[in-house]
Amino acid sequence: MPLRLESRDGRGGGAGQGTLRGIGSREEKTTMIRILPPEVADKIAAGEVVERPASVVKELVENSIDAGATRIRVDVQDAGKRLIRVTDNGSGIPHDEVTLAFHRYSTSKIATVEDLARITTLGFRGEALASIAAVAQVSLLTGTGRDQPGVLVRVEGGRVLGVEPRAGRRGTVVTVENLFYNTPARHCFLKSDATEMAHIGRLLGAYALAYPEIGFALYAEGKRRFHTPGSGKLREAIIATWGLEIAKAMRPVELVRAGIRVQGYIGGRRLSRSNRSQLLIFVNRRWVQHTLLARAVEEAYKGLLPSGQHPVVVLNIELDPAAVDVNVHPTKREVRFRRLQDVLETVERAVRSALIQEAPTPAAPTVPGAPPRRRRPSREMVRLALEAQRPLEAPEERAGLPPLRVVGQVRQTYIVAEGPEGVYLIDQHAAHERVLYQE
């Protein structure tokens, strides 16, 4: 129904108190513009940051990583609905700054507008603890270990209930209990324990892969679900997170181009999933959701995976912090690039390069007494080599390859293929080098 705002004298257009009148209706409602009470504003802001138990784990684990922790343990009960506890051995918080940590927009990670242009930490908004404390019962035990006492702070519904001295201990323990106890509507929208636990497990697994030098552990109801060694080796983190069989089927990726470094591991054509749950992309080790990046990875696999399947990938894109904007959304899961096309091209080339090296060349059956036959390259090898010799365009603009039939291979260097326009002679090694080195 159209609405018209009138002032009390009936002339309309005034500011402040007025009347909302439905046109063609007798209903009227007097409204006033007012500043919301702090407790209401805090709950609204918390809704942007804290969506479910995994959101709490994310914010607390990021704080631990930024504090330089080398060991991070997460304990949960009732899939985090009843209790979440994150324990780390990081730098801790000085006792005279602890209560500031619960104030919205208080942070040690940035100080000026210029700092926003070069963010190197996972957290920077200064909202996490305040948002969590607005909808849960929180206690924080922390110490710097520098001959200073530790401190315990208790906060409930955004109100500080007490501050107590404790024995000095380096590190921080944050305990979050009864999440959404004061917002029952939010609690009702939580999923089953199995679903919420799956979100927590996937989240912690992603951080374990982004930071293999940190030892992570997840405990549910006192039982260890998984842990990583913190050795600094990504392959060992993959084994601990996804299992030995998956790790054995993955191969390393590394390419530096146009000031962008892409590193990680990718699965071959025999390793795929029906969704993108194991297609993890990090930007400066921040786990991000970026449709175009995922599409660039999958474009490199075009023709290699069955329809509807997605690759298993762990990639970190390292570039100048000033070239990426992470201040897009309160959850910090979305990013924007200043040179998006360069990033997409570098990612696709890095993945395709690794796939060229992996592309299978099945052996032909041998006949006793016959001279050994050279192995014929597969269609996948032909496709990858041809793609490497084409100009790299945006994924949505690239035309498909013509149907080719592999005829043979010359001196283990040239692939001979037959297509609708004649015979193709493809220098597979030159194509491979172009993928690796062309700028």
- Tell me the major beta sheet: 8 strands, mixed
Q: Please indicate the percent range of residues in DSSP E strands (runs of 2 or more).
A: 25-35%
CATH architecture of the largest domain: 2-Layer Sandwich
Shape: elongated
Structure at a glance:
It is built from 11 helices and 23 strands. By secondary structure, the chain is an alpha+beta fold. The protein folds into 4 domains: 1-34, no CATH class; 40-227, Histidine kinase-like ATPase, C-terminal domain (Heat Shock Protein 90, 2-Layer Sandwich); 243-358, Ribosomal Protein S5, domain 2; 379-437, no CATH class.
Key attributes of the depicted protein:
439 residues; Heat Shock Protein 90; disordered C terminus; 11 helices; Ribosomal Protein S5, domain 2; alpha+beta; 27% helix; 8-stranded mixed beta sheet; 23 strands; 5-stranded mixed beta sheet
Explain the overall architecture.
- With 439 residues, the chain is an alpha+beta fold.
- It folds into 4 domains: 1-34, no CATH class; 40-227, Histidine kinase-like ATPase, C-terminal domain (Heat Shock Protein 90, 2-Layer Sandwich); 243-358, Ribosomal Protein S5, domain 2 (2-Layer Sandwich); 379-437, no CATH class.
- Helices cover 27% and strands 28% of the residues.
- It contains 11 helices and 23 strands.
- The protein has helices spanning 38-49, 53-66, 128-134, 184-188, 193-210, 234-242, 244-248, 291-300, 340-358, 379-388, 428-437; strands at residues 3-6, 18-22, 28-31, 71-77, 83-88, 137-143, 150-156, 159-166, 171-177, 215-220, 223-227, 250-257, 260-267, 272-273, 279-283, 286-287, 310-311, 313-318, 324-325, 336-337, 405-410, 414-419, 422-427.
- The strands form 6 sheets. The chain has an 8-stranded mixed beta sheet with strand order 8-7-6-9-5-4-10-11, with helices on one face. It has a 5-stranded mixed beta sheet with strand order 12-13-18-15-16, sandwiched between helices.
- Helix 8 runs parallel beside helix 9.
